[in-house]
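Whether sequence alone determines local backbone shape is best considered at the level of individual chains. In the encoding step, the backbone of a single protein was reduced to a row of integers, each denoting a local shape. For completeness, the protein is quoted in full, as a sequence line and a line of structure tokens.
***
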Amino acid sequence: MKKIALILFSIFLLIMGGCSNNSASSNVGANKNSESEKGLTGVQVSKEPIDLKIHLHHFDGQVIFNDDWPTFKKAAELTNVNLKGVAPKTSTDSQEAFNLMIASGEIPDLVHGTKADLTKYGKEGAFLPLDELIEKHAPNIKKYLEEMEGLEEFATASDGNLYFVPFIADGKAQKGWFVRQDWLDKLGLKIPQTSEETYEVLKAFKEKDPNGNGKQDEIPYFSRIPESLGDLTILWGARNDLYLDGDKVQFGPYEEKYGTALSGLAKWYEEKLIDPEIFTRGAKARDILLGNNQGGMTHDWFGSTAGYNNLLKDQVEGFKFETFAPPQNTEGEKVEPTVRDPYGDKAGIAIGYSTEDPVKAIKYLDFFYTEEGRRLMNYGVEGETYDLVDGKPVFKEEILSSPDVPTTLHEYGAQTLFSYHQDFEYEKQWLNPIALKGIEEYTANNYFAEPLPPLTFTEEEEKKIIEIAADLKTYRDEMMQKWVMGAEEIDYEKFKNQLKNLGVEEYIELHQKAYNRSMEK
């Protein structure tokens, strides 16, 4: 289906010919009425109600635009713009749904997608360049682009144009370490402070029957995301990807300590301190292993992981899953390799090339960057999902008492990956106190590794980076699995030579050049 979609899109481009850019630029000022409407009140986009079509389909069909979402109905009341979803509700493959929409040539007014897709097809004519529209008609988006560090660099395509308005995350902490405090207490152990102490705790979990069932069935370390095993390389001072060392861009797997880290993880796996099914157990690992009173330690998202304390309090006697600071690694540092990147979701909304009124479309998107629009997307509808208390939105008890607050808010259309700036205060209201404690500790001590800033590449650089990155990631993940599971003897020099053959040095150099350019601005 994806191959067919790409073939059809090629035909679509031929039909459009070379006129797409002309139509894009002429559309910017096409509807003079939209620029000269008088008598608009508040955040109205149009005097008369209008409809815009939207393709919004993500998380493989878990979220598809619903015409009845109260959040967007309220937005329609305020702006006079009513959205109509056109993404197929039966599809369970978001990428395929996007590809087929593109291939059809029938691009709706608004399209949700990844940065990669929206910029790729924007450059090919499917979406409008937004720079001039934002400059003239979207003061709130413009303000964000001017004032929020790295936003413009992130959103700008290699041809110098902006083709989408991004979703911006809020907050800093996302993942942290969790350990069964009730198991530590039973075995007379303390929270591990170093990587060596972490090993000793996991070993005790394996050998000393902390769940008390008389069997050696404990899984000391587990993860629901196999790739996140790479996060643990930090315990040996290594990194699993690109990172910034001062002003120098580095690729962690291309450094000797990465081989040391993989040797350490392989030792842990051989001793059954790491889940033997870590590469195959899948997304339900936390549910299964914690629910069966078998899981001892993990490194995962604060909010959802701390929530198991409530979920399992009546199922597992004494259950207590506590956060703890990153263990000091072999280089004497406490480092959390993950940090919530405001642009990490790399998604947003583009405007289709054939929309009849791009000015109204960009004004509608600009609404969600106002204080009122941002609150609507973060908290839902006042009186339905929250109340204003001393000027601040406070969720109603029926929202806070729901088993999964984000999912409940999605049912109202709030907290959807649209284009707006998230507000971390929304998350604080429903987070488990254990999660809040962990987030505050990690933030106060700034354990986070410095991330690479958003970088802008030339079209040629971008194409090369995408090509090299795919090969590097595939090879890195393949060898990590083989080495950790003992399927192949660790030969780091051979591994390093293959990375070199795959273009790792050019990959680093391209990022270094882009970083240097960003520092010169």
